[in-house]
Amino acid sequence: MSDGSIIGRSTTVRGHVRGTGPIRVEGSVEGDVTTDGDIDVGPEARIRGDVSGATLRVGGAVAGDLTGTEAVLLIAGARVVGNLSAPRIGVAEGALVRGNIETGPGEGQRVVTSPVAERRLPVAPPAAKAPITPVRAAVPPVRRAPVRPPAPKTVAKPVETPSPRAVVPAAPASRSATRAPTPVEPTRAKPARVAKPAPAPVVPAITKGIRGRKKRAGQR
Amino acid sequence: MAGTVIGEGLTIEGEVVTDDEVVVQGAVRGTLTSGDVVSIASGGVVEADIQATSLSVGGQATGNVVVTDRVDIQAGGRLIGDVKAARLTIADGASFKGNVDMDV
Fold this sequence. Notes:
The complex is a heterodimer. By secondary structure, chain A is α/β, with parallel strands linked by helices. Chain A is 32% helix and 27% strand. Chain A starts with a strand and ends with a helix. In chain B, 0% of the residues lie in helices and 63% in strands. Chain B contains no helices and 13 strands. The model of chain B has no long low-confidence stretch (mean pLDDT 93). Classes of the chains: A alpha/beta, B mainly beta. Strand 2 (12-19) of chain A pairs antiparallel with strand 2 (10-18) of chain B, so a sheet runs across the interface.
């Protein structure tokens, strides 16, 4: 790279400027300026676009982000509206900036900007915990939900005792509706089936089994 | 150096409008309008319509040329496009394809 590029004071470029080598901008660029060399922005320069290079020395007006792989330096006379990002950033007295300034990732940098890094770190773990809790909260109602509708079926035996009792008061409640006769008959049949292991409906079950025979024998 | 220098590794895609002298060592794609002299160095590539007072082609130029003064195509230079100029020189070893209008 023998010599760099110069965009003169009276030059207006409407488009992107890309390449290698140093660039000195003293004119107007409406577009991005990207190079792997240094970029000098003169005091009468106007750039409307992002500027990327190695070391950026800005003394003019830039509306766009400034990204330096080595440094971004704003000297007096600089008017920047955009974000600055570089391992080394300098803003001299008299320069005007509006935007984020980030001195980039790097282990040495974290030590220097530790209060900012500490504020950032606790953000991550609550974000990791947040998705876990709704999953746990979702599981128990899922398990309980299928149990309630098949209450007449013997889904779970410990639920049996409350279920016929729950069904029986439900039957008189439904009697107020016009469906009274049909729900009563199946409720009577169900305690008969349930009675073998359970002690609750004892009276109709005496006719069956050994006790039933004895009773019949006693009656006879 | 001259007003605007487009260095060897640089590519400009778009319009370039200037009152300065322009030296193109890199690439320009779009249009190039100058109020002064435009010279395309031997490694320069211009794929644009050129408007200038004077043009010197040492590299490659593709596009129409409207020049008020003179156009010089040097040896090793290559110009493809129509030329409207007052004066024209084509050196031995230069390449040229296009119409010439010398405002006769």
